[in-house]
Design goal:
single chain; 309 residues; alpha/beta; 11 strands; 2 domains; 4-stranded mixed beta sheet; 11 helices; 7-stranded mixed beta sheet
């Protein structure tokens, strides 16, 4: 298979109930010149058996990790095997509509962009919500703050390799590469569709109770702050870094017990030099502001989609 336009990477771990719908949706894309790189990350359920039947498809490249490496390292391995001009990612419990990747590629090609980002639909136990509340006026903010995860976007492979952009090994593996991508890129495209379907489930890794290793996510912001320090656009990035870090802290704080919350506050203090008591006040104000902003956006979107009489 030559002249591949895109390599779609799917890291898989214990997804026996979801992986068939995921892969089938990718194989049903309205295009021909693509490949699907599926990385089985040492699954312990029947995922491996399910994937064997897909390995017969000429579009599928199946890689079996000998040990559990995590989503970040699995994605890195997939990028090394990829032969497409663009890289796309789909999580193992998500699915995409038939024209999702063709529409993304068309937009990226038209605008000669390094990154193209889209909207998504979230499924919360049968309750669906469309994320049509992004502001395309600041695409760097979307890539780093609003859409840090690698799915619901495509990236030029040459851009990733040239800038040595790799995922980290631990939780929050996509934060630093999202920042680096947004910082370096000269062109981001935005496509206003909701054809990526994200399944929000209790058992996913991002929904579990946190452990000490998860503190690494907060420490990533130290790495980002060190990178941006004394650069000419530092003042542009500092508010975005703060916003993104509060999103991380909010998730970890909500899923932690009291002792872990105290440790998280200490981690945040070390990174941002903020006194914990002052930070808690700021955090609560941010939560209220986010709620009000989201409510306004929701009401505006409802009004925008009302049928005219």
């Amino acid at each position: 298979m030559t002249n591949l336009i895109i390599s779609i990477i799917v890291p898989v771990y214990n997804a026996q109930n979801y992986i068939e719908k995921c892969i089938n949706s990718i194989l049903n894309q309205d295009m021909e010149n693509y490949e699907v790189i599926v990385i089985n990350d040492d699954s312990t359920d029947s995922t491996a058996e399910i994937l064997k039947k897909y390995a017969k498809d000429k579009k599928i490249v199946l890689i079996n990790n000998e040990e559990n490496l995590g989503a970040g390292e699995s994605r890195n391995k997939g990028i090394l095997f990829a032969r497409g001009k663009y890289i796309g990612f789909v999580d193992n419990d998500d699915w995409v509509e038939p024209d999702y990747f063709p529409s993304m590629i068309k937009k990226a090609e038209e605008e000669n962009s390094d990154i193209c980002v889209s909207l998504k639909i979230e499924n919360h136990k049968g309750r669906f919500s469309k994320t049509h509340l992004l502001n395309p006026d600041n695409l760097k903010e979307i890539v780093f703050v609003k859409r840090t995860a690698p799915w619901a976007k495509i990236i030029r492979k040459e851009f990733l390799l040239k800038n040595n952009i790799k995922f980290d090994k631990t939780r929050g593996e996509d934060i630093y590469p999202a920042f680096l991508s947004a910082y370096i890129t000269q062109k981001i495209s935005f496509i206003d569709n909701t054809k990526y379907h994200c399944n929000i489930r209790k058992g996913s890794i991002s929904r579990r109770k946190i452990s000490y290793e998860d503190y690494f996510e907060i420490r990533l912001y130290k790495k980002i702050l060190d990178f941006i320090r004394n650069k000419k656009d530092e003042n542009f990035w500092l508010p975005l870094i703060k916003e993104r870090s509060l999103i991380s802290f909010d998730f970890l704080y909500k899923n932690a017990d009291n002792e872990t919350r105290y440790e998280l506050l200490k981690e945040y203090e070390d990174v941002f030099n903020i006194i914990p008591s002052d930070f808690i006040k700021e955090y609560k104000m941010w939560k209220i502001k986010r709620f009000i902003d989201n409510l306004k956006s929701f009401l505006n979107s409802i009004c925008r989609h009302q049928p005219t009489r």
